């Protein structure tokens, strides 16, 4: 359950649920007009995610952001014709005031950090849509955009600001709250928009923000338009952008039907995925079921299968499972992945994705979307602050896309040979093997822009070439170890003890130190804006969140709005 | 004064002094034999930097590391012939046990963070010597190398491990202390040595470490040698490495004479640099004096000037000033840089450095060293957790190397025109101008590998070309603003108010939030191992240092050695 309370003991635990749909939205309106979609923020003040605060001035909380994430996802799958998405406010004289401050003040450390991570991921997914999906986000700032409000704009590809003498963009977190803009704002200013660091410094220390021509000169926005022509300028830009999209001009979307999820005590069941919690050991066992039948033979068949097409169904379930475990099961510090199924069937699904996903043909939009969704979901896994362990056993199907679960893991154990004695659920499976497909060599990069194999063998291209040469082969434990795909290969005599000891040992460590270590080891090599947001920026924000100057009982987050002034400890660290 | 006490109130304040020399070393021995130097660690248990702990097993504290830094510096300047440096232990059966744990346990947060930063910088300077200075570091691990001990080895270019059945390399910080290896170890494992992240995970969670052939297979060390041939293997490798050095085979070093520094209340005076502290405002005003006479006309003259040659004298004084302010003046949150002198004289010194520093000729070793030292010192400035403000006024000499102080600043103010009314120290200087030299376009990169100008204009090469075209010209405030070299150019009427308000405003903000913001904005663009260590790794470590699981009264750092076991808060954040 999410700890949303303060450090001082005022706690509320609720189950965070990420399922929603446009009909249920409280805070966003999604309108489609031909090739252009419009996402209008109209936050209902009296509908906070948990009690304790009002969502004034289009400020947001997790509930608002869950709807935004849902809308971004549905636009991709349900509205294939849309080529441009306008993000704007439905309220007069305010765009968005950012994350709700009272909400932050009453939230515990873990909730704040996970809230920021999820909002970051949603903004990254908007950028992913602009870059790869033919759905380009445009921001129409029609009133003051403060903090997370301006950061939402920064996640868009083009920013229009109304020139009405009063509408500003601002990042007032530092002067007002003693924290950082926590949703990628600092990184996007300098790395995405090329704002000079001294200008960014001024902006981030000026609570009233910047408006008009200076906002354009300093590259904070792309375009300025007076009130009288603002709507037209937005429409023109959206139409022009949509025109350039490679999305199909006529196509039927597929519906993202409600996800079936049953929570029953220590078990969570989806159709193709099951979670078993060992709360005493702090482990979530995640079993992924491979496909049980061959994929459709063509695009028509994939469209007909819709969200029951196995790779899409898996992406949705894994996505929800990760978010569920992150927010609701914070003490399950280790996630253990297993798979069950047929390597050849998984390979067949990979093949049909690879055949269509990278072809310059609008009719392939759905396959491309599914592949991008798998990429984003695996990225979400990499940046989860949980130890990842993968167990490769007889009957498993760690092939291609699913093999990424092994490559993502901090440790991977593969049984060498088979179980000697019968097991409860032993169905006499053949020895465990893994198989590489084209999905392991490009389509599923991590947040730092390289594949998990490239990250695994930094500066050793020959190791990767040796692995590539084995694509399609069933690799037993010895072969997988030889190629460097797995960490250890105990035989049946040692398997149970070795795995159990590893999990017990993991459970004995400090979760904080594990988080910092894993975040440092998983992302060797190059950096991208995304990896900088999750690595550098979030690490600093987490530190600041932890400091008395921000989160202490007399810290700025607690005192905001009370009129009292924080007395900062002035020591620089 | 450094707060070295615990959070629970047991405090000791001492003045940290970085001046030392080989004759004063307590813990290291520096031996030179022809082209090979040997740095032997022989820590005196009973000589800790502050009372309260014993330096057992060649463990180190700030005092040990100050000596190491001094030795690395002197090797560069005083021993020009040295081409290889062997780092080893003078003790039997132990190499180095890393940072002393009791010292960490009794240190306050600020001290721990600054201790780690300084040790990181020293290790980076060893790598800088290997890469650029023709002095390649080789590590001879002749006994167990634990934690910071192994991290010291990781900073070397080649690691030999004795194969005696018991000597291991280990990073036991996480299992034993609930913190990270804080001196770049995690980053160097994956980014420098290409150790697989699952192998690194195993190493970092295994307190007993790894020895023998597995250490080589996993790329943790480069070479293994049995006890009987170990010394010979080290000598051979050192000789072979020294052979490849481009250092002169015969040359006279220059002596780094004791730095003259006078601390007098709120003032610190060096020969070419002066610090005035405004403790109420939390500001350190740093005045850099330009050269007063023309540089020597050739290399002989530079050698004769020795450490009085202005660029070297400046680097030494600025280096010491930064370290002094970091460790001893933690509440001076803003550093305000001013210069006084003659632009043309500064340019003349830059010219002579540029003329000789990048020439493939051993006789230029000293000029290259001075240029590298200026680079490292400016890097130290960039990663300092202080707000940097530069004031450009009539009589200043922000030219070339000194202009980097303006480009490094979070804000830079330049007086447009001159003072209208007479000032106390008004000597009727001409209007302030700045001047670019070749030093601004390559020799002085930041930790992320790009110049401050490149970082300032990310993705805008034309802006940089426009600036390059003005090299050598005296640029007044309007011109400097137009080129984007300065932030604001108030005239005399506004100057005093605008600067004062900016400094007062800065002083009113949370120092923690400023540190996180500045670290995020200063380093846009690419990343290097160095920038990852200061950005990502240090930020995570700082967060972990702040968490009760590590630093609480019942945290692992406090309980280590007591026999009591930490009860961790198991929530993953």
Question: What does the model show?
Answer:
The structure is a homodimer of 573-residue chains. Helix content of chain A is 42%, strand content 15%. The first copy, chain A, is an alpha/beta fold. The first copy, chain A, has a 7-stranded mixed β-sheet, with helices on both faces. A 6-stranded mixed β-sheet of chain A has the order 3-4-6-8-10-13, with helices on both faces. A 3-stranded mixed β-sheet of chain A has the order 9-11-12. Residues 1-11 of chain A have low confidence and may be disordered. Chain A starts with a strand and ends in a 14-residue tail after the last helix. In chain A, 59% of the residues are buried. At the A-B interface, helix 3, helix 5, helix 6, helix 7 and helix 18 of A face helix 3, helix 5, helix 6, helix 7 and helix 18 of B.
- Main beta sheet strand tally, sense and closure of chain A: 7 strands, mixed
Which blocks of ≥5 consecutive residues of chain A have pLDDT under 50? 1-11
Instruction: Determine the most extensive contact between two protein chains.
Output: A-B, 89 and 89 residues
Please count the helical segments of chain A: 22
> What spatial form of chain A do the alpha-carbon principal axes imply?
globular
SS elements, strand count of chain A: 20
Gyration radius of chain A, in Å: 24 Å
Arithmetic mean pLDDT of chain A: 94
Order of strands in the sheet with the most strands of chain A?
Answer: 14-15-16-17-18-19-20
Which structural class do you get from the secondary structure elements of chain A? alpha/beta
Oligomer: homodimer
Determine the strand fraction of chain A and express it as a percent band: 5-15%
Give the helix proportion of chain A (percent range): 40-55%
Distance between the termini of chain A: 34 Å
């Amino acid at each position: 359950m999410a700890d949303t309370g303060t450090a001082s003991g005022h706690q509320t635990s609720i189950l965070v649920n990420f399922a929603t749909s446009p009909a249920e939205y409280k805070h966003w309106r999604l309108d489609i007009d031909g090739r252009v979609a419009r996402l209008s923020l109209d936050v209902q003040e009296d509908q906070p995610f948990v009690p304790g605060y009002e969502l004034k001035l289009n400020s947001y909380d997790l509930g608002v952001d869950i709807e935004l994430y849902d809308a971004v996802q549905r636009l991709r799958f349900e509205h294939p014709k849309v080529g441009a998405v306008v993000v704007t406010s439905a309220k007069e004289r305010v765009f968005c005031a950012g994350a709700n401050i009272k909400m932050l003040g009453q939230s515990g450390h873990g909730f704040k950090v996970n809230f920021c991570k999820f909002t970051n991921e949603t903004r990254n997914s908007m950028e992913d849509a602009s870059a790869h999906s033919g759905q380009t986000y445009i921001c129409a700032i029609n009133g003051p955009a403060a903090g997370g409000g301006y950061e939402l704009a920064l996640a868009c590809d083009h920013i229009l600001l109304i020139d009405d003498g009063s509408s500003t963009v601002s990042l007032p977190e530092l002067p007002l709250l003693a924290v950082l803009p926590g949703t990628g704002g600092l990184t996007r200013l300098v790395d995405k928009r090329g704002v000079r660091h001294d200008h960014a410094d001024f902006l981030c220390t000026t609570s009233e923000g910047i408006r008009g021509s200076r906002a354009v000169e300093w590259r904070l926005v792309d375009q300025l338009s007076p009130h009288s022509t603002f709507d037209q300028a937005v429409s023109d830009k959206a139409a022009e952008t949509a025109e350039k999209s490679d999305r199909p001009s006529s196509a039927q979307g597929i519906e993202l039907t409600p996800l079936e999820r049953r929570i029953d005590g220590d078990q969570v069941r989806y159709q193709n995925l099951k979670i078993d919690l060992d709360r005493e050991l702090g482990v979530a066992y995640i079993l992924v079921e491979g496909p049980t039948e061959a994929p459709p033979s063509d695009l028509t068949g994939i469209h007909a299968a819709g969200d029951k097409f196995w790779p899409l169904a898996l992406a949705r379930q894994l996505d929800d499972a990760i978010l569920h475990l992150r927010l609701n099961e914070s003490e399950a510090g280790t996630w253990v992945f297993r798979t069950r199924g047929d390597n050849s069937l998984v390979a067949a699904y990979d093949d049909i994705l690879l055949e269509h996903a990278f072809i310059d043909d609008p009719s392939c939009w759905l396959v491309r979307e599914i592949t991008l969704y798998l990429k984003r979901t695996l990225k979400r896994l990499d940046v989860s602050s949980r130890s990842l362990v993968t167990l490769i056993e007889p009957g498993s199907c760690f092939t291609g896309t699913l093999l990424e679960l092994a490559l993502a893991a901090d440790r991977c154990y593969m049984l060498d040979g088979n179980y000697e004695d019968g097991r409860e659920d032993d169905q006499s499976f053949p020895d465990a093997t893994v198989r590489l497909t084209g999905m392991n060599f490009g389509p599923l990069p991590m947040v730092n822009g390289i594949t998990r194999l490239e990250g695994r063998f930094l500066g050793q291209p020959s190791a990767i070439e040796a692995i590539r040469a084995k694509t399609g082969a069933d690799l037993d434990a010895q072969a997988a170890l030889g190629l460097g795909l797995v960490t250890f290969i105990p035989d049946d005599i040692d398997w149970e003890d070795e795995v159990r000891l590893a999990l017990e040992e993991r459970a004995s460590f400090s979760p904080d130190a594990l988080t910092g270590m894993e975040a440092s080891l998983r992302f060797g090599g190059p950096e991208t804006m995304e990896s900088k947001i999750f690595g550098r920026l979030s690490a600093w924000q987490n530190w600041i969140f932890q400091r008395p100057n921000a989160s202490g009982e007399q810290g700025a987050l607690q005192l905001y709005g009370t009129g009292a002034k924080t007395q900062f400890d002035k020591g620089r660290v």
